[in-house]
Model the fold of this input.
Amino acid sequence: MSMKVSLFSTGFENYPLEHTFSIAAECGYDGVDVGGFRPHAFAPDVLGGVNGGAEAILGYVQKYQMPIVSYVPANIGYPYSFTFREPELNEISMEYYLSTLDAATAIEAPLVMYAINPIGFGIDREYLKRQVVEDLKRLSDRAAQLNQKIILEPVTPFEGKLCVSSDDCKYYLDEVDNDALEICLDLAAPFTCGEPIAEYWEKMPGKVREIHFVDCTADCEDHLIPGDGEMDWPRIVDYLKSVEYDGYLALELFSRYGNEPDFSARRGIEVIRDMISD
Done:
């Protein structure tokens, strides 16, 4: 099987969610990654019928014949986080995260992605790592019951401290020890950490379920269309082909593309298709 290309709705955060599906279909993407933020698919809205809720989103899937690849809840600190030191705030976050699994089920998303960032200076990392492990155990147990997969995304060192490298990812997978937990590899993470992507396959064989196929520079977390940054794309693509990766490559458009996401989505898939073609 060949690699497939999906469009992450985060680049269209100022537009209704349907617009992402429409552009994805028009440009020839193979799927959509749905952002769990307002106005797109905030979990309480999906479950509560706001803007049509899950029924409306499933309608977009059918209308545009565009499957949902993953559901990406709001989970990086405001107002929910894996890294609150206060037990009450952590529990409030966990209640929300558990509800995001229900939201993912409602929109028939097979993958649910979480990231862990940031923690700030002077905070007990070991305490928070243990807390994250316990949180991921609860989520993984629930995901297994729902026949879902959780995909943990490493972030760049500019965005977080607890899950940025292949060793960090392996730590959580080993400690949680649940087949429902796998990896979403954002290519900006290994590049800014100075490690080859091969580390993920060698340390965690078969665990990379999705890739955020983005470029960046060594000194910044910005996510760019492949070729707009500093990565060695022939080498990356050759490696992915060598390990027979046949999952999704998600284009995640960040801030500099925010004013022209339609154009960027069109250019992005042209670039990616050209890169991965045989």
